[in-house]
Amino acid sequence: MLLLQTIMVILVVIALWVARRDVASVFWPKFIEERQFQHLTYAVMLCLFLLWSAQAGIKPGLNIHFLALTTLTLMYGWKVAFLLTIPVSLILALVGNLNWSALADYLALSCLLPIIISHIVFTASYRWLPRNIFVFIFVAGFINGALTGSLHLLAISLYHLGIQNHTWNDIQNNYLIFLPLLAFPEALLNGMAVTLLSVFQPQWLRAFSDKDYIYNHYHND
């Protein structure tokens, strides 16, 4: 039990160490200089706080809520996205929606892991699939959201099984049973968000490029 919790802390520290340069050189200067970017970032964190506050669960620690971390990753990149989840998680702990003792576990399993999965799926789609806006929306948005949400629930299940908080029957009957019900709404939430951003505010998506996803076929010709 203590070993797994220690690993969670180490993973969080490593992720912050890796993210420090991107945050310092890309995110922070833009955040300081552009008021509109500040308002966008504050609004995004508020939305995450409200979304994560609306959680449900039958067993302690086995809580279910929408993540929206696929959209966050596509907007900011995985390094900055993880940084932004930290103040949101701290506020959740301050208002009593998250136990302080579970903060590191939450950051590692419910923030860092889904963000890394989202980044991997996007990177794979960028490298190996045709680069057009439909692939970006349906693979990097819809499918990515469903896969990330499903793997998140599975990781939480394995973690609680590993620290012996719950038996496998309890986890299967009170947590994993909701996986099919959560996958589609998570996909829809992220897919619709990515669709709207791609059409109306593509500059808010760090992972999106007109050159790659809209005009790419002209360059190939």
Automatic annotation (TrEMBL):
Keyword RNA-binding: no
InterPro entries: CbiM/NikMN
UniProt entry tagged with the keyword DNA-binding: no
Cellular localization per UniProt: Cell membrane
Domain of life the protein comes from: Bacteria
Pfam families, per the entry: CbiM (PF01891)
Entry keyword set: Cell membrane, Membrane, Transmembrane, Transmembrane helix, Transport
UniProt membrane topology term: Multi-pass membrane protein
Membrane-spanning parts: 37-54, 66-94, 106-126, 133-155, 175-200
Major place of residence: membrane
Protein name as annotated: Energy-coupling factor ABC transporter permease
Protein source organism: Vibrio olivae
Lineage of the species this protein comes from: Bacteria, Pseudomonadati, Pseudomonadota, Gammaproteobacteria, Vibrionales
